[in-house]
Predict the structure.
Amino acid sequence: MSVGTTPDAARPATASSARAPWPLIPEQDPFYAAPPDLGRHAPGAVLRTRRVELALFGVVPQRISAWQLLYRTCDLNDVPEVAVTTVLLPWGADPTVPRPLVSFQCAIDGVSSRCFPSYALRRGARALGAIPQLELPVIGAALARGWAVSVPDHGGMSGQFGVAREPGYRSLDGIRAALNFTPLGLGPTTPVGLWGYSGGGLATAWAAELAAEYAPELTIVGAVAGSPVGDLASAFIRLNGTFLSGFATVCVAALRRAYPALDRLLIDEVHPEFLGLLAQAESRTTFELIPRFAGKNIDKYSRTTFSELLARPEMRYVLDDIRPGVQAPTMPMLVIQGVNDELIAVADVDAHVERYVAAGAAIRYVRDRLSLHLPLLYIGTPFTMNWLADRLAQRDTGPTGTNTVWSLAFGKREAVGHLRFAKVFGRMLAARPITAPVRPTAPATPRRSVA
């Protein structure tokens, strides 16, 4: 039994299970406390487990088998730390039936622990405005395929959104923990897929880049990065002073925790009022930030201009460090991006893909003309899952390269997928069980797809 494992950890939770009225936020919850001998454990070692109950927006209880695993991982500087992943099976799933594992990296995009998936997805969570709550239907659709799912808190206990490499370490160690958790019925040869969108797409990119070196024993067969930011420095400049400037503000609030030189620079160069804004950003969920920080321009809070601040060596080091794409993923990868995305610039993702291709990666890059940022998460879900299903079943996923389509919603496979997605969402709204297919899906024959 793992360190801290509760005796009933292997029993699936039910809607009538006894529970506290509200889950504790992570900094108040003893489950998240690191054991004193943390350094003695290997990366991915399971330290503590518990059953949990999930809910749509914290309110509608979900009939999904769910556990949380506290596991050992590391930070940017290879210092041991703990993180939590929420691991899921379809309701009533037989753990003796072989199934793949998908690690779904949520778009945490926040410092506040109320944004962590391990908190925001739980029944009773007071996390209005946390993006993982919007992604639970997508996770449910993956479960309805019969897959096991790991949802890591890839920002760590400090909510270090945007920091280089750390999301990859935490995601990969979360996979290790899931494979070693007996109730899931997985093993060392289980095929694994990576998937994330927006901030979760960026985390997925880091995991894909680091996998061969950091976790070579994992059988990762494919990765999907939806709208994976591409270049946070470019996003800072573009979003500064706009309606969406809150995203840049909360990222700066997170980065100063991981990069001491950046923190010192901010203390020296910006007015106390802006430091106060950063402190506010640390305590709010993502969508709470948007109206509060809309139109904030750092030029008004700095002793110099934003452009001059970005040119400082301390800032350039951080911005260069957090830009992904230098190391080629060794597994096939799908990237999707909206051409007219209002939050993530298509040019930044184009450049990200070009860096991967130049480094020798096998990338299929599909650009969608019609979708804005958040809608593409849902519009692209059937296409993404079809691609992942083919990879997990070791089927051909089509050619690599870049192409632009009107919409990922078009195509016969995608139309069927949207109907299935709608059915799953309806079951979730009605608090009905999300179950695996009655029988395994037969190998697909090649069919014409949207891209």
